[in-house]
Design goal:
The protein has twelve helices and ten strands. The chain is of the alpha+beta class. Strands 7-3-10-9-8 form a five-stranded antiparallel sheet, sandwiched between helices. Strands 4-5-6 form a three-stranded antiparallel sheet. Strands 1-2 form a two-stranded antiparallel sheet. Helix 2 crosses helix 3.
Length: 338
C-alpha cells in the first residue's frame, strides 16, 4: 500500500499531466502543490512510484506521466466526483426537458454528454428485456386489419400492422384490448408470454384465430433482436487528443464503429453503478489507449440501459464521472415522468 504522502504526490502528477499535457517534474510539483516536503523528498517518492509502476518516464526528460496502474489508483482513491454547478445542472435539465420522445431523449443525451465532457459519448437505448409494459393499444384500420401499439415504461413505442385471418369487430377488439392490458400492464416483458398463453380460449371460436395472430405479433415485438441499440456522438472530439494515442487514432475509430464492442464496453445494463475501465483494462485491443466511464440509467431504482464516454486515458476523471452521473440521473427522471 502507498503511504498517504506518495498517494498525494501521485494525485498531483495526474492532475498536472491532465491539465498541462506535459510530463511532470519534481520541481514543478513542489512549486504548484503544497506537499509540505522538500523537492528531494518528492524526487524519492517519484522514484518509488516509478518502481511500483504507477508512473513512467516517456523519454529522457526529468518529467513523469501516470501509467494505467497510476490512473487506476487515482480513480479508486478519489474522495468524490466533481459535482456539477447549479448553472450546469439547470442547463442539463433544460436541454433534456425539451425532448419529445425516446429517440429525441437519446439523441439529446448523446449531444449533451459529448459537449460536457468533450469526449465521445455513447448512449444505449433502454433494453426491452428489462422493460415493463405500460399499455397495449389496438386500433381498427379495416375490418381485418389492426394496428398494435406497445408502450413501455421507458417511453419506447413500437407499432405493428396486423392482417387478421378474419374480420374483427370493434366490440371484440375493445374486449381483447381490455383483457390484454389487465394481464400485461405493469408486468415485465419476460413474463408476458406465460400471462397470455391461454387468452384465446376465452373468446368465441371464430375470433380465436385473430386473437392468436395479435398475440403472436405482440410476442414477436417483445423479443426482436434489434433491441440492443445505441447512439454515438462527438467522435470528432478525438482529434483534439491526437498526441494521446501512441501510434494512430485509427484503431480507436474502428472500435467505435463496432456496436458489439461498444455494448460490451458499457457492460451489463442491470448494473447501475459507475464503471471506469482504464487503458489495458479494456479487452478490445484497439481501445487500449482509452478510458471508458459508464453508468446505468433508468426509472426507479433499476437501470434499464447504460450511457458513458470514451476518451484518452489522460482524462479529467472527477469531472467526467460527475458529468456522466448527473446526465444519467436526469435521463432517469425523464423516463420516470414520461
Amino acid at each position: 500500500m502507498l503511504s498517504e504522502r506518495r498517494l498525494q504526490v501521485l494525485r498531483a502528477i495526474v492532475q498536472d499531466y491532465v491539465g498541462t499535457e506535459e510530463p511532470v517534474g519534481s520541481k514543478a510539483l513542489t512549486e504548484r502543490h503544497n506537499l509540505g516536503v522538500s523537492p528531494a523528498t518528492v524526487r524519492n517518492d517519484m522514484a518509488a512510484l516509478e518502481d511500483e509502476g504507477f508512473i513512467a518516464q516517456p523519454h529522457t526528460s526529468a518529467g513523469r506521466i501516470p501509467t494505467d496502474k497510476g490512473y487506476r489508483l487515482f480513480v479508486d482513491k478519489l474522495a468524490g466526483v466533481k459535482p456539477m454547478s447549479a448553472p450546469e445542472r439547470r442547463a442539463i435539465q433544460n436541454f433534456l426537458d425539451g425532448a419529445v420522445d425516446l429517440d429525441d431523449v437519446v439523441a439529446r443525451t448523446v449531444r449533451l454528454l459529448a459537449q460536457l465532457t468533450r469526449q465521445v459519448a455513447v448512449v444505449q437505448y433502454p433494453s426491452l428485456t428489462r422493460s415493463t409494459v405500460r399499455h397495449v393499444e389496438l386500433l381498427s384500420l379495416a375490418p381485418a386489419r389492426v394496428m398494435l401499439v406497445l408502450i413501455t415504461d421507458t417511453g419506447r413505442v413500437e407499432q405493428r400492422m396486423i392482417d387478421c385471418p378474419a374480420p374483427f369487430g370493434e366490440a371484440s377488439l375493445a374486449d381483447l384490448r381490455a383483457r390484454l392490458n389487465s394481464r400485461v400492464a405493469g408486468r415485465r416483458f419476460t413474463d408476458v408470454p406465460r400471462l397470455v398463453e391461454d387468452l384465446p380460449e376465452g373468446f368465441d371460436v371464430e375470433d380465436r384465430g385473430t386473437v392468436a395472430t395479435v398475440l403472436s405479433t405482440l410476442l414477436e415485438t417483445l423479443v426482436e433482436e434489434n433491441e440492443e441499440r445505441l447512439m454515438i456522438g462527438g467522435t470528432a472530439n478525438l482529434t483534439r487528443f491526437g498526441h494521446d494515442f501512441p501510434l494512430t487514432i485509427r484503431p480507436v475509430l474502428e472500435a467505435l464503429e463496432e456496436q458489439v464492442v461498444l455494448l460490451k464496453l458499457l457492460g451489463e445494463a442491470g448494473d447501475s453503478g459507475m464503471t471506469v475501465r482504464i487503458g489495458h483494462e479494456n479487452a478490445y485491443e484497439g481501445l487500449n489507449s482509452t478510458s471508458v466511464v459508464s453508468v446505468g440509467y433508468g426509472s426507479g431504482g433499476e437501470a434499464v440501459a447504460k450511457l458513458g464516454v470514451v476518451g484518452p486515458t489522460r482524462m479529467d476523471y472527477p469531472g467526467t464521472m460527475g458529468a456522466v452521473r448527473a446526465v444519467a440521473r436526469y435521463v432517469g427522471q425523464i423516463l420516470a415522468e414520461s
